[in-house]
Design brief:
The protein is an alpha/beta fold. The chain contains ten helices and 21 strands. The protein has two domains: 180 residues, FAD/NAD(P)-binding domain (3-Layer(bba) Sandwich), CATH 3.50.50.60; 170 residues, Polyamine Oxidase, Chain A, domain 2 (Alpha-Beta Complex), CATH 3.90.660. Strand 2, helix 1 and strand 3 form a beta-alpha-beta unit. Strands 8-7-17-18-19-16-20 form a seven-stranded mixed beta sheet. It has a five-stranded mixed beta sheet with strand order 1-13-12-11-15.
């Protein structure tokens, strides 16, 4: 039996940020348990070329943040010294309305509020947080299967490779989506029925979706007065943006509009072929000459999507993050982004959910009963 005062389930942004905040407050008696082999959760930045270079990485998960309305996230990025840059939006955009019509140029627009990106992709945020932690306290490759309240403590059943390992903790922070927590972890005693239903009905942000990324030597569309943005009613991409990295390769990425179930019937090669052909329709023959192209289908990500997410079922409003009374009161709290009332699903939501837990549960002396 291994023990920590606080067990954090999940090493995505919310889990690592929770550990980072605990470290800042001088609290080191915690463990982060992550099912995947690497930290990051839904943040994935695809490297191009030299694997040791962080400059040429492109986001296949969350891409943007909005400093003017997401102050806490912006402050964290500044505190960690991470360089950022504005999303490129200068120029006209392309629009496809019908299969039998050519794509047309139209006036582009600037996002309001302005969107910002991180140099090296959002993975830079994960890397920076991880560097602030004791790596021995972040245990990857272990799947939490059960959480049981026993008198004054909580026992966590973990599958780590071929081994079953039990952890003991006083408090558990759920840094994974509510739906996955409710579906994949056995709670004893069970969660209140109403709360369990609310968690199960909460859609996991971006889980039904897939992204296509095409990387180029140069941003040829900019030379043609285009922003790299496009909207399409033809598909397979329904929305396209410039994903270029300053000082690195140029890139375009798009959201695939084909449903998760239909995508599963297609080979990745065929889906890539269709996406690249669409970029040629939109931006011309140069779009065929990629350095590399990639698809990230989040609906097939084992530790992200459930069957309900693949069906597109669920609500995006934040559910209650904890039990009001009874065995689990004050001992079990959801801190993943979906539990944020202010920014549910967004990167800033992970920061907000953790900060709310700290304000509500950590007294000024930084001690948890």
């Amino acid at each position: 039996m291994q023990r920590a005062k606080i067990a954090i389930i999940g090493a995505g942004l919310s889990g690592l940020y929770a550990a980072y905040r605990l470290e800042q407050m001088g609290m080191h008696d915690y463990v982060v348990l992550e099912a995947a082999e690497t930290p990051g959760g839904r943040i994935v930045s695809q490297p191009i070329g030299d694997s040791d270079s962080t400059q040429n990485r492109f986001d296949l998960g969350p891409t943007w943040y909005w400093p003017s309305i997401q102050k806490s996230l912006n402050d964290l990025i500044a505190d960690l010294g991470l360089p950022s840059f504005a999303q490129f939006e200068s120029g006209e955009m392309m629009v496809e309305r019908q299969p039998d019509q050519l794509a047309r140029r139209t006036q582009g627009y600037l996002s309001s509020p302005a969107a910002q990106r991180l140099a090296g992709g959002m993975q830079s945020l994960i890397d920076a947080l991880y560097r602030q932690l004791d790596p021995g306290l972040v245990v990857t490759g272990c799947t939490v299967q059960s959480i049981e309240r026993k008198d004054s403590t909580i026992e966590i059943g973990v599958r780590h490779g071929e081994l079953n390992i039990n952890w003991q903790a006083d408090h558990v922070l759920l840094a994974l989506p509510p739906r996955l927590a409710a579906e994949r972890i056995t709670f004893s005693p069970p969660l209140p029925e109403v709360l369990a239903r609310q968690w199960q009905a909460t859609a996991t942000w971006m889980a039904p979706h897939a992204k296509y990324l095409a990387v180029y030597e140069r941003a040829f569309w900019r030379q043609n007065g285009l922003s790299g943005a496009a909207r399409s009613a033809v598909g397979p991409l329904v929305e396209v943006h410039d994903a270029s990295m300053p000082g690195g390769n140029a890139a375009l990425f798009g959201f695939i509009g084909i449903s998760a179930h239909e995508r599963q019937k297609m080979s990745q090669d065929e889906l890539k072929r269709q996406c690249k052909a669409q970029l040629e329709r939109l931006f011309g023959p140069a779009a065929a000459h990629t350095v590399g192209d990639f698809i990230k289908d989040w609906a097939q990500a084992e530790y992200v999507a459930s069957a309900a997410d693949r069906d597109g079922f669920g609500y995006h409003a934040a559910p209650p993050a904890e039990v009001d009374s009874g065995y689990w009161s004050g001992r079990l709290v959801g801190i993943a982004s979906e539990w944020s009332p202010q920014f549910p699903g967004y990167l800033a939501g992970a920061i907000d959910a953790v900060d709310r837990w700290i304000v509500n549960h950590l007294p000024q002396n930084h001690y948890i009963d």
